[in-house]
Amino acid sequence: MLFRSTVEADLDRFLPLVTVDPASGMTPEKYRENLADRQYRPERTWIAEDGAGTVLALAVWWGGSDEERPAALDGLFVHPSLGTGEERTDLAARLLGAAHTAFAATGPNAPPEYHVFLPGDWHERPEAVAALTWRREAARRAGLPAELERLRYAWTPQDARPEPARLLAFEPEPDDGVFVGLFHRTLAGSLDSHSLKEAAELGAEAQARADVEFYRTFMRGERSWWRVARDADGEVVGFGLPSRNHAFPVIGYLGVLPEYRGRGYVGEILGEITRILLAEAAPEEIRADTDLGNVPMAAAFERAGYRNFARRLVFSAT
Question: pTM score, two decimals?
Fold first, then answer.
């Protein structure tokens, strides 16, 4: 079996493997769209082919159009001739492992995460569980054993508009250092798994700087949208980062400082982010994610009229 990245001439050979199921919404048309704007690339698309040249498995990584390293595995497919048992899982795992080895030779050793988008009720749907199970096991064998489940939310202008803030006032803050400090301070007692994991690896200060850099350079929202929240006494109590990704305006990040939690501030910061995105991005839809275990944030989204429409599983090395 040969495992390799693709070239342009392979396109019509591997696209027939791209089929929609409950654990993958990728279509051939969507692949072509993302290929055209360089979010998918031949070198980020890997195949397994047998001695006769038949493509038996396909893995597609996504990344920013101006980024050299893939950010996340976006799709994993195996030819139906391999059935639904161990042979399918084994081939998928070996394909991922080969690609991970190649990626590590040109960048960080940790392989890119694998993001799987699932229906909100996937736990109760046997067909969704089946579509996920072999992919999850292949990812585990290929070095992505850690798993995080996130809730996906959406809000449209037809939904209830956020009420004016009563408790907080918001202002722009041009100094990135202020936001580094706020990210750092909000880590204490945070329920955000990603931030806590990265802080444990990098240190809290380095993680805070990395967060600011991420929203500054990788995300597509305007820096001028960022806000600091102050209470009636003029004290900084939190912050909000409206942003956008490659497809939607998003709730980038919001934080309440530990000593001010439990006072209803999270809802007002969320409302301010929503208002800014409405005014600045003219969205048809605003998207947001939060960890399944972050119950206060999920409750805030639901109070604000955001609808939990799906879930995201993130598989990672740690």
Answer: 0.93
In order of 77, 108, 145, 230, the CA distances from 122 in angstroms are 19, 33, 20, 40
User: Per-residue pLDDT for 90 more than 90?
Assistant: yes
Which residue stretches of 142-188 are H helix? Answer: 176-186
C-beta separation of 308 from 298 below 8 A: yes
Q: Is the pLDDT of residue 262 over 90?
A: yes
Contacts of 131 by beta carbon, 8 Å cutoff, 6+ apart:
21, 22, 23, 24
The residue-averaged pLDDT of 284-311 equals 97
Q: Summarize pLDDT for 246-255 with one digit per residue, the tens.
A: 999 999 999 9
In the chain, which ranges are continuous DSSP H helix?
11-14, 28-36, 86-104, 126-141, 176-186, 193-202, 204-213, 265-281, 295-303
Q: Which of 252, 249, 21 is closest to 134 using CA atoms?
A: 21
CB 245 within 8 A of CB 71: no
Domains of the chain: 2-144 (3.40.630.30), 169-316 (3.40.630.30)
Q: What phi, psi does 57 have (nearest 5°)?
A: -155, 155
Is the Cβ–Cβ distance between 99 and 61 less than 8 Å?
yes
Strand 72-78 to strand 113-119: parallel, antiparallel, or no bridges (unpaired)?
parallel
User: What is d(CA 147, CA 85) in angstroms, rounded to the nearest whole number?
Assistant: 22
Neighbour count for residue 223 (Cβ, 10 Å): 14
Contact 45, 60 (CB under 8 A): yes
Q: What is the rounded (10 degree) CA torsion for 125, 128, 134, 136?
A: -100
Written as six digits, the tokens of 293 are 């275990």
